[in-house]
Amino acid sequence: MNTDIDHLEPAEPHDGTPFARADSAVLIDKGRVAKRQQVLDDARSKLKSSFVGIDHVIDELCDAVAVWYTMPEVLRRPMIVNLWGMTGVGKTDLVRRLVAALDYQEDFVEIELTNGDSTTFHSSVASRLENVATEPGTPLIVLFDEIQRFNTLDSDGKPVTNTKFADFWELLSDGRLSRREREDLDYMFGSMMSSIRNRERRASQRAADADDDDDDDSIGLWRAQQLKSVFGMAGSLDALAQMSQLEAFGHMQAARSTKKIFEPIDCSKFLVIISGNLDEAFTMAGQGGETDVDADIFHAFTSKITLVDIKNALLSRFKPEQVARFGNVHLIYTSLSRPNFEALIEREVDRVITTTRDLFDIELDVDDSVRRLIYRNGVFPVQGVRPVFSSVADILETNLAKFLFDAILRDDRQIDVRYDEAAHTLVASIGDPPRVVRVPYSGRIDRIRNDAAIDRVANVAVHEAGHALAYCVLFKLSPLQITARVASTYVGGFTFPHSIYETRGSLIDKAKVLLAGGLAEDIIFGIDNASIGRSNDREVLTQNIVDFVRRYGFDDEFQASYSLEGVYTLDRRVTDPDIEKMIARLAGETRQLLVQHQPLLRDLASRLVIHGSMHATDIADVMRAHGIDVDVQPEGYLWAPPYHATLEGDRD
To answer: Taking the alpha carbons of 553, 554, 556, 558 in that order, is the dihedral positive or negative?
Structure first.
């Protein structure tokens, strides 16, 4: 046995098939490209059948990865794709299903970066990738999930001290990752030398003891992985793991002599997918517990989020040079619309029907009343699909088990399920002739809504009717939704407006709309019975009027900017009397408006008490019945003065 390990000659490179790379001209296999394009097209169709409401994201994602998947040879930098959306819209699941559809499970890594002090074994992207069997310079999919937690700026815009995963930015920049530090490499060499010497000592001891047993000389999987990731050796892990320690040490010396182990790791053929939720762009994400706002309203607002909004949100968490490295491929999820949620519920109900047929040979028919029950209690627009899945299980599957038990005992083959809203009961007609089985059930969210005291509902209805009336009269537009009976202990109700282009006039009208809720209570119930529900209205109102005077200069008496800081700060106290007088004047004008339309105010509030919630068309019908004509516009509508018509009219 050769024991002079310090003078071993470098071994020849391990026999393996490296990934073909082109140094200059790139030869593309057109047949392979066509075949992979077909696989990608099939994946596109499969993904669309698996998700609801994100067809546009699936199309954009498949288009974005097409070159990487079909012709990775042409890439000189990683392909970077960003996915942004609120929780539960399917960002991570979409990536995982795409990976499976492309048969890339063995070449896929999920990494969740953090700037916290949590104890993790890995502190760099390079060390995390050492556990991957993919050779440098070959395609790999890496998902960096929940990237918002890796912010490098705090809420005040100051740098966050963080030494972990700093090479993430190297990867995004040019697709190269720094290798191990020299100290780490020296440790690997020393460890291998120590193992060889220990084995030699054990062999000498066995020879002295006349022991014929021999211990295993193979390096094992862990060191085989090091040979691949750190020293760039080709070949399968199984084959490398069978290599002797001396042979492996020779290959390590060979790699060190060529200096390759000090070169950056080539990640140019990577597909890097970055996923996260940016509350700065998805401002409605904070309303995660909201189940009363129409899903179409949230959908319309998220549909307006653009690439510029995403980049501005990123700039609040990352340095400008880092934001640039995210690239320009940003796929933005909208929140699901009402039709999307209805389609999702239909798909889940169909799944239950199919499962019931396949497992029990029983035909199940589910009435639309059950679907409405699931929607009312399972749809939280900002939380995405997960609450719906939970509610289908809670409302349908759990109670279906009771009906199935009855049907199986009597060998019945048909179950029809409906929901009796008046009796708060799930009703099943089982068998032929049908036998009725009832199970009392109240939706968890329905119970919260229905527990509201009628006097409280009446108070909230008048408040919201005041907002809605002022909105209709001043903007000639019906609000998207008003609600007086909500599933919350802390929110009395709401009036959901459109986007309003802010002008001198619209700021004044918005102030009146804010004042109208509390003033409506004064008029209908008397000042002493007015509630404290106006507090938030007054805060927003005051902020708007302060900006009206101090920031925008819409008050003729104060033309300087009183919102500046530092050496430019002016005495803001001089504006306070005018601000107070202006709010008082607007309150008087708003009171006159409400008194003038008091019969309409009462009628709208009474209807709101009965229905709990009203949408734009319902509100418009009430307004028109009282002689006020208003427009009904969709959720994405922007109210603005007719600037273009005015401009063109001035030319004539």
So the answer is: negative
Strands 481-483 and 613-615, by their bridges, are antiparallel
Task: Tell whether 23 is covered by a domain.
Answer: no
**β-bridge partners, 81:** 273
Query: What's the farthest any 2 CA atoms get from each other in the chain?
Result: 113
**Cβ–Cβ under 8 Å, residues 255 and 232:** yes
DSSP one-letter string for 361-430: --EEEE-HHHHHHHHHHH--GGGTTHHHHHHIIIIIIHHHHHHHHHHHHTT--EEEEEEETTTTEEEEEE
**pTM of the predicted model, to two decimals?**
0.77
Q: Which domain holds residue 425?
A: 338-450
For residue 282 the two structure tokens come to: 């998805």
Nearest to 395 by CA among 447, 434, 435: 447
Cα–Cα distance for residue pair 335/113, rounded to 1 Å? 25
Burial-class residue 114 by CB neighbours within 10 Å (0-12, 13-18, 19+): middle
Q: How far apart are the first and last CA of the chain?
A: 102
Segment 114-145, tens digit of pLDDT: 776 554 567 788 878 876 756 778 899 999 99
69-102 pLDDT, tens digit each? 999 989 999 999 999 998 888 899 999 999 999 9
The whole-angstrom separation of Cα 425 and Cα 272 is 51
pLDDT tens, residue by residue, 459-498? 999 999 999 999 999 999 999 999 998 776 655 788 999 9
In sequence order, the 6+-apart residues with CB closer than 8 A to the CB of 499 are 301, 304, 636, 637, 638, 639
CA 229, 233, 239, 244 dihedral sign is negative
pLDDT digits (tens, 9 = 90+) for 531-557: 999 999 999 999 999 999 999 999 999
- Collapsing DSSP to helix, strand or coil, 188 comes out as helix
Residue 18 DSSP symbol: P
Q: Which residues is 145 bridged to in the sheet? A: 112
Q: Record the tokens describing residue 510, joined without a space.
A: 């918005």
Q: Last residue of some domain: 302, 332, 362?
A: 332
* CA dist list (Å): 344 to 16, 93, 95, 355, 419: 49, 16, 19, 17, 19
User: Could you tell me if residue 552 is inside a domain?
Assistant: yes
Shared-domain flag, residues 434 and 555: no
| Long-range CB contacts (within 8 A, 24+) of 348-355 | 348/388, 348/389, 348/392, 349/374, 349/392, 349/396, 352/392, 352/396, 352/397, 352/400
Closest to 250 in 3D by CA, of 189, 205, 187:
189
The CATH code of the domain that includes 146 is: 3.40.50
Report d(CA 61, CA 633) in Å as an integer.
32
Strands 176-177 and 414-420: unpaired
Listed residue (498, 499, 486) closest to 456, CA to CA: 486
Instruction: Clarify whether residues 487 and 575 are in a common domain.
Output: yes
**For residue 270, with 0-12 CB atoms within 10 Å meaning exposed, 13-18 middle and 19 or more buried, which class applies?**
buried
Residue 378's closest CA among 396, 366, 390?
Answer: 390
**What amino acid occupies position 135?**
E
> Is the pLDDT assigned to residue 566 strictly greater than 80?
yes
> Has residue 5 got a pLDDT over 70?
no
- The residue ranking higher by pLDDT, 164 or 419, is 419
Tell whether 272 and 149 lie within a shared domain: yes
Does residue 374 belong to any structural domain of this protein?
Answer: yes
Question: Residue length, the chain?
Answer: 652
176-195 residue pLDDT tens: 887 655 555 666 777 778 88
